[in-house]
Amino acid sequence: MIVALRKLAAVLVIAASSACAPAVGTGGTVQGTAGQPVNVILFIGDGVGTAYWTAARIAADSLAIERMRVMGLTDTRSDDSYVTDSAAGATVYATGHRTYNGAIGVGPRCQAMFRADSAAVMRNPASCDPLESVFDIAIGAGIGTGLVATSAITHATPASFGAKVPFRRMQPEIATQLAATPIDVLLGGGRGFFDGTLRPDSANLLTGLCSRAACLSTAADLATYRADDRRLVGLFAQNQMERAAVRQPLLAEMTRVALERLGRNPRGFFLMVEGSQPDWRGHANEPLSEVQAEMVDFDDAIAVGLDFARRNPQTLVLVVADHETGGLSLVMQGDTLAARYTTDYHTGEMTPHFAYGAGAERFAGLRENREVGRMLVEIVRNRR
Ligand SMILES: [Zn+2]
Hints:
Layout: H1 2-20, E1 39-45, H2 50-59, E2 70-75, H3 86-95, H4 109-116, H5 118-123, H6 134-140, E3 144-152, H7 156-162, H8 171-180, E4 185-189, H9 192-195, H10 206-212, E5 213-216, H11 219-224, E6 231-235, H12 251-262, E7 269-275, H13 278-283, H14 288-311, E8 315-321, E9 324-325, E10 329-333, E11 336-340, E12 346-347, E13 351-357, E14 365-368, H15 369-381
Parallel strand pairs: 1-7, 1-8, 2-14, 3-4, 3-7, 4-6, 5-6
Antiparallel strand pairs: 2-13, 8-13, 9-12, 10-11
The chain binds zinc ion (ZN).
């Protein structure tokens, strides 16, 4: 009887799924949950541990991530510490390799190379045990690439995808490398590292860059931008962008425009969007409302990515964190919920991740950050 019921249930499930399945085009995927993604949208929430998502859920009636039914936990450690920084924490997603804290797109051997001959390394920083990144592979294959952040675009997380230097503080060199690569979209802060005002050499990289790219500097520029095939460079602050309450443009608007530009590439794209500032609220042990403002800004950007993936089913949306910041916990203070922190630095706690769309289910479960990175590398390699 049980067997018969199961068979009946199986028939009903098949009937229901074929009735509900959308039309499958060439290479298309049923409800965007299987197969090879053509587009990847990777959201990195800097410092975003479980308590950060809890704070967001208390602030908002519903969250975009609730649409993402594939979930897991990430073991975030780096090559030289149980507690990673954002440079090693992003390099591992960009390359599939764990490295030392502070490294941008380069491997563990770079430290010994620097100790042996620092002058040689500083003459050519990109040659210091460089790791192949998902952006290197994508660019070689004609796949679109984009970086969006609410920090300077030369800051650790975006830099790890588009540059290779031994130390994260080398932001002028990172800007030089980002300007020289053909990355299609750069949106965030950090104008001073490109226009010369924050560079020891005072070089203005925008003169050359903007002769071939659409260059924007205000939220109004972004709102009226119409995508063409040129590179898109929007630098909206001299260094870091403002905090969420007064930030212009918001992360969701930058994400929308990045997708409009990258969606033009028939070969697909890899877009990395960082919610940079939950980490900073955590470092400064700020009140819960400030953490919530950053998290709602981040989740609003994820909603834009999920809407794109619903319209374009060959898209994978993955939301990860590089590490947790502050050891944030949520406690009752009188009759209100309040933030309590255990540190002003990062912690080694596992962080939650969420996946949606083409190829999402392979990310389910407990994953090391390097496994996640390797799977992203594999996805882009398979697209060549
Ligand atoms: Zn941090």
